[in-house]
Amino acid sequence: MTKQVVKTAKAPQPIGPYSQGVMVDGFLFVSGQGGVDPSSGRLESDIESQTRQTLTNVKNIVEAAGLSLSSIVRVAVYLKRMSDFNQMNDVYKTFFNEAPPTRTTVQVELPRPEMLIEIDAVAHQ
Questions:
Q1: Nearest 5°: phi and psi at 49?
Q2: Which of 46, 111, 102, 47 is nearest to 75 (CA)?
């Protein structure tokens, strides 16, 4: 098994003992990302903006591993409020408009009260 840590300044830096991404035998596992802008450290304010920034962070980690959004095979979406589902989905489909990956969406309690969404992903070379 080969294991490579993937890091980029184009996504928020980990706030704990985990990696942004880990590549293992052609699979990239992307840690949960939120709607934090990595350049300002600011969390976006609404579900659309947080979804867009979250997916941009995921995209930047995937690209740092030499892959693209089309390489993503599985996504998990964690919403603070399931009532945000349609608004999240409207933004989500702009990132995955052709042959989208499999996906699970659940409602959860997120680490910060103002955080509305978190997304993790698995990609393959």
A1: -65, -40
A2: 102
Domain count, the chain: 1
From the CB of residue 67, how many other CB atoms can be counted at a distance below 10 Å? Answer: 21
DSSP 28: E
Tens digits of residue pLDDT in 47-96: 999 999 999 999 999 999 999 999 999 999 999 999 999 999 999 999 99
CATH number, domain at 119?
3.30.1330.40
Write down the pTM of the prediction: 0.97
CB 12, CB 33: distance < 8 Å: yes
Domain containing 109 equals 3-12+19-124
114, two tokens: 């103002």
| Cβ proximity of 29 and 87 under 8 Å | no
